[in-house]
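From the shared-data thread, chain only:
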Amino acid sequence: MKELDTEKGGIDNEIRDFVNTWRVLNEDCKHLEELEELKRIELRKERAALALCQLNCLQRLKEIYPITVLGDYDVICGLGCPHDLVNLDDEQLSAALGYICHLTILLAKYLMVNLRYQLSFHASRSLFYDSLSAAVLIYPLFRKE
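Structure, as tokens:
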């Protein structure tokens, strides 16, 4: 009988230890859940701050590179590009394409978007590179003289 009481006491102690351990683990889990929620809130705040910075940058780019449509012309920074590019002055077209190249590079950077083709801004002598083909091809954004 004494042996049964001793075994019962040992089992009761093990059960008590198990219950205490379970309570501690349960409290730890609640604490971890609270920390995770705080991390999620902080991440949302950071994403919102990033979106606000991006909007600010886009607004500034809109002011630096104003784009309007006037009839058959798309105008960037006062340089008109007709939809029919044949009749346009080469220098004006090259300058407008240079502005578009620079604007595209800045938009990709600020919005964290990878461009399929690499652009190289050199004002009215800008280029883009096609590295997707077997050999790297270079295309000028200006008419060759």
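The beta strands are 67-70, 73-76, 79-82, 118-120, 127-130, 137-140.
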